[in-house]
Structures
1.
Amino acid sequence: MSALVLVENEVTYGGQYDHWQDLTGVSYQFPNQYRNKILPGRRFVYYRGVRRANHQRGQAEYFGMGRVVAVWRDPSVPESVPKARWHWYCSVEDYVPFPKPVPAKIDRKYLETIPNALGWRTAVRELPTEVFAQILALANLQDLDAETVDETPLSSSPLLAPPLDAVNPRDASGGLDGFIQPHNPARQPSADGTTSSYRRTRQSKHIGDRAEEVVIKWLQAKLEPMLTPSITWVAQQGKTPGWDIEFVNEHGDTVSVEVKGTTGSVFQSVEITMQEWEAAKARREKYWLVLVTACLSSQPTVHLIQDPYGLLANGNLEITPVLWRLRRV
């Protein structure tokens, strides 16, 4: 299948389309008219126009790519309304931001052939294979083959992450708001959807390793210089104690750091193994859960959750078993 363009503007003309509830790299909401275009398995590139938040303007550009996974009807829209007014969601995997955004116009010529000005208002557009390949090349992804990109886990390519010395991790602010989305059934595939939001995708290890590298760099900047030599990447040593990184704090106590990463802008939920949760329960305030969003970008955001088991006990988090292992006896 050819690729798509998914428009995700920061703001729109007159604000009449600003209500769409998109989560970059996580999920995309769209009207019924595009239901036959957005199909599981289709690759896409993200596009945004010139309008930016706070009345700013920027270049029209393509800024990332991914793959459609599940598609489901938005249950917040009653089935009784005319079908033309239905809304849909799709979930996204293999999302990667482009190392550099690709301008929509090169040498005064648009990359896409749009018949008229109204065509740029189309939220979901077909993207010819040759234009898709051109966008990849302009994003410095020229080694990827656009003809076989449907079978390629793009996030596993080292081309897609900047050198670690060019990465500047940022501390999150505002608590969990905006970092982990509150549970919203509309944004979750139904039980008969084509995918499970809990399965590990093919690029999971690459994303996890990168997130751990980001957190080590973040710790090196956050801790007192005398403590940084104690930082140990236990996961890289093949150890699985229930955390990925550890260090010794100023009191001589070992702090356990479990890292979770996503290429998207937020987490819809965070997967925790039984071993990790038992470690969190045993170590309490000496157990850190560190979440990294946009972990393949040059400015990933890092959020520290200290004593996640305590937050559960206080009612700030909830935990749900989502996987059972069956074996023959």
Note: The radius of gyration is 21 Å.
2.
Amino acid sequence: MLEAVIFDMDGVLVESHAAHKRAWQRFLKSVGRTVTAAELEFIFDGRKREDILRYFLGELSSEDIGSFGQQKEAFFREEVTELRTIPGVEDFLEHLERGQFRIAVASAGSNSRVYHVLEHLRLQQYFDTVVAGDDVLSGKPDPAIFRLASARLGVDADRAIVFEDSVSGIKAAKAAGMKCVGIGNASRAEILLKAGADQVVADFTSLPVSELHQFFPHF
């Protein structure tokens, strides 16, 4: 039986990829690093900020990671007013709440950014717990973030479903023993299904809460 629903944030709850792309481009330019559009796709794979920094800048000290992270965060916060929720998110969350499901966010973003975005879009009220990249040692595709989310919710992994939009996030959810629905357009569907998604939908208008039980026939 389904008891918990866990959401990634960027690209799942919030249309934030364009804002992240602009913020990372500005940050990398500020430190003299020119990147191609293909290289920049790495930021959309659900990785922790320190993993992204090392990907572009090589080995860094913890002090550098902290300083660079703050710089990138400052650029992103200038973009927050442009953020919008994914279509159908609020209604979907309200239906989950009425159904008395346990609900969590499990995002690779920093605690400060995740809470800032959720508060700005008035989404925080829906979640029983929020797990961010700062709360785990290893980022996605490691399953640690989803295991921690289910532990905080007090729900077994095989009674939870995850909504994700990245390959690494889907692999993390499946490695945690959870069902996973991919969020993506038609061009992304095959990639997300190959990563292990049980189904792919464009947004939350495409999958009513009542249909989530189809993923748990063995109960």
Note: The domain at 4-15+83-215 is CATH 3.40.50.1000 (Rossmann fold).
3.
Amino acid sequence: MNLLATDLPATDYRNNMATAPLTTPEVRVLSLTQADLDGLELLFDEQCEDWLEVLGWDYSGPSRLIRDVVRDRDLSGFVAVSGNTTIGFAFYVIESNRCSIGDIYVSKNWRGIGADKLLAEALLAKIDSIPRLKRVENQSVSIGTYEAYANFEAYGFKRFDRNYLMICASDWQNETSCVQTNPSTSIALRRWDDEDFSQAVKVIHSSYVGKLDSLINSQYCTEEGCADLLGILTEHIWCGNFLPHVSRLAVEEKTGRIVGVLIASRISPGVGHISQISVKPSHQGQGIGRQMIHSSLDDFFALDFKKVSLAVTHANSNALHLYQSCGFRTVHSFPVFHLEK
């Protein structure tokens, strides 16, 4: 297999990245189809430990799904190997003309020697060879893959930093004494019902039209894409176990129309996550988002959750300020990337 690498100037990246063997004195990069499955299992276990330690997230469920596809030799990507030791992996998924980079992960003991850089180069070389692709996204929560970031930027990807924030039950008790909501008298909050799905999709889509996050994640650009995302949040384990009784809908009392959506899940024992907050543009600035957050947090902590997390694009200053004013604090930061080819 011919593998590509890169100690190349940024200006020559696309034209020359397919000429040199992808290797360092310590590291080789191979196709995932050539991976040692036992070595990969150890890496997947370590990644789950990282997610739990850094994010408070039990990633074992999604990890099992990925492992199943890897064992079937049906996942596209690469592994980094030193000697007989598997030290890193990266994979991607293609849907129509869109490519999603699922992850780049390197073992703690092997970080800082350029393994993530080599994995990124292999991914980019492969992606560049697929002519039908129009868009490439890397939305994954990365931990420790700092050397890979420069490759994406040199290749022409646009970078946006995201904050992973968390609030503890004890902090919430303190915050409620000094941060009050300003509830709208025309809006009522209630819990999620499956019949709300279609209306919720429309609210989510409308809240992202022309906004930064629709540039980062193209699924926000269409109602169909938003429906796919909401389906993942409410029907699958990728963002934890959906909690309909902790999720919130903001509803106009006179019309019954949904104007705000908050989706909540459990990501590990005692740790909750708010995976989606959207308010219709016509109702933004009225304190509805804060109402939903406060109401949901009240339920989380009444149910004896110890922590609740969420993620936000750093450049979305209004949302970041809202979450910080509710008591959330940043515990991890990571970049996401996208490229229009």
Note: The mean pLDDT is 89.
4.
Amino acid sequence: MGLSVAIPARNEERYIAGCIESVEGLADEVVVLLDTESSDRTGELCRERGARIERASFVSFAHLRNQVLDLCRQPWVFFLDADERATPELCAEIAVVVVSEVDPANEEAVVGYWVPRHNTFFGRPVRHAGWYPDHQLRLLWRARARYPEEERVHEVVQLRGRTERLSGHLLHYNVDTLREFRAKQRRYARLEAEMLWEKGQRGRPRKLVTQPLREFWRRYVTLAGWKDGWLGLFLCGAIAYYTAQAQWRLLRMGGQARKP
């Protein structure tokens, strides 16, 4: 059996070297799907570390992941984002898993593994509000995996078979600056609005209030974001704000569609 590490990337020269180095010696190949609009040294840094570079234009995160699944050559695929690192403990677990083969006739075979993830914002780890353990379904038997492309953001792979959990962690260096945080959340708000529109949902003025309040309450109270102090308050408030931005975009899309 064998393993491909798959990394979608765009302008990630700050993170990509550490990402690839965290899985050094683990995989049979590292495949970086580089956005055609990437303009920094990401590709050069990948090639220096032995990664295979493929290029694609961004359509959606799900489409990007399906593309790289098709480009990988090994039966097991481990997805990493450029700003993530695999811990040595996680790599050791993965090395044991990928020696096994999935029986094509067994629909109950284990074909995916969830991985717990630590999230760091502005240099500080966040332990609540849904950001830990933040399990990610990242180790996949390629022949049984596909991402639903109607999900433009926060995509989760669909598998034909069962999943289990690993105990080794991913480390996610989420954002370091306010500028980076704002840019990322604006992009997510736009993609969220487009996805909801394509699913037939339409904006309602009341949702500009109810949806953000619901999201803030879920993260700050139900998921105990308050335990992370001022950072927890800021993040929960910011996510609520960008939830409102997505609803505002959706409302505007409806208004534009009604124009003669």
Note: The two ends are 58 Å apart (CA to CA).
